[in-house]
Design a protein that fits this description.
Blueprint: E1 2-5, E2 12-15, E3 21-24, H1 33-46, E4 53-57, E5 63-68
Parallel strand pairs: 1-3
Antiparallel strand pairs: 1-5, 2-3, 4-5
Length: 71
């Protein structure tokens, strides 16, 4: 799962263990802006296109589940 920390001073991704990632984004959690920033950060972290990162659950939560589609 992914824990999101919005309004961070700098954007970064930290892998806690095999299944837990913490994503710090500068965007505020307003109008889905933080979710979009998390998708971009995860895409960069996993070296895939942003369209390959799909939010499965947790739209309005700080803890989210994403699918990473590797082609």
């Amino acid at each position: 799962y992914v824990t999101v920390k919005p309004r961070a001073t700098r954007e970064r991704v930290e892998q806690v263990d095999e299944t837990h990632v913490v994503v710090y984004v500068q965007a505020a959690p307003i109008e889905n802006e933080a979710n979009k920033a998390v998708i971009k950060s995860l895409a960069r972290f996993f070296s895939v296109a942003p369209s390959c990162v799909v939010l499965r659950s947790g739209v309005a939560s700080k803890q989210k589940v994403f699918d990473i589609i590797v082609v």
